[in-house]
């Protein structure tokens, strides 16, 4: 397949025990939650690396030196452009990440909480973005898992959207449309926040994925 003129941006947090996946950690413990977060991040990076896109950027926050699977994450990041997240709140960091990743291509942004994402699905989203002003994939918890826009200016509306709420996805969709941006919606996915999310996401990942191996080893 020809390379698609799209940048895939992964917004990620170093999986440091005690700081990563705190809601999950309340059940499984800090170390296990960090291991699961690391597995999710690495599976996500593998999918992005396999997608036929022009550029790949990770906007990272946190201290990788203290992260679970730090050596493997550092090795994987060598094939990505890595920028540091900047901004006070998550909404600001997202908007700033779009600006920092922009290199003339439309930007397709995902997080690290949907390890079931595949290179094929990312390719489909990138193709849709080339045909539309924006794409948005809602998450089953009310947020969203993927956002694609053509310019950093289109992502500026994120600054006014309350994040990590049950209506964040719908508010994001409304904010884009209120700014005159036509949005095409793509597949919805579950993201991993609590123990109850694990089984369905693992089924979507496949048995050979890191996420499947690590969550099974944790007894989930």
TrEMBL record:
It comes from the Bacteria. Gene3D superfamilies: Spore Coat Polysaccharide Biosynthesis Protein SpsA, Chain A (3.90.550.10). Signal peptide: none annotated. This is 2-phospho-L-lactate guanylyltransferase. It comes from Mycobacterium attenuatum. Coiled coil: none annotated.
């Amino acid at each position: 397949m020809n390379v698609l003129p799209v940048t895939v941006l992964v917004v990620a947090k170093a999986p440091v025990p005690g700081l990563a996946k705190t809601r999950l950690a309340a059940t499984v413990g800090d170390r296990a939650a960090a291991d699961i977060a690391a597995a999710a991040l690495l599976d996500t990076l593998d999918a992005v690396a396999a997608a036929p896109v022009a550029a790949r950027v990770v906007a990272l926050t946190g201290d990788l030196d203290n992260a679970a699977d730090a050596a493997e994450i550092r090795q994987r990041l060598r094939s990505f452009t890595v920028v540091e997240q900047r901004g006070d709140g998550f909404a600001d960091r997202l908007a700033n990440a779009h600006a920092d990743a922009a290199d003339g291509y439309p930007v397709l942004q995902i997080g690290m909480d949907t390890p079931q994402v595949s290179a094929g699905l990312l390719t489909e989203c990138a193709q849709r973005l080339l045909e539309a002003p924006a794409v948005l994939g809602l998450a089953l918890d009310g947020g969203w898992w993927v956002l694609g826009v053509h310019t950093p200016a289109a992502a500026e509306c994120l600054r006014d959207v309350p994040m990590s709420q049950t209506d964040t996805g719908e508010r994001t969709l409304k904010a884009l449309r209120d700014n005159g941006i036509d949005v095409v919606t793509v597949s919805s996915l579950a993201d991993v926040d609590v123990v109850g999310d694990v089984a369905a996401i693992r089924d979507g990942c496949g048995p050979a994925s890191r996420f499947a191996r690590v969550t099974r080893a944790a007894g989930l």
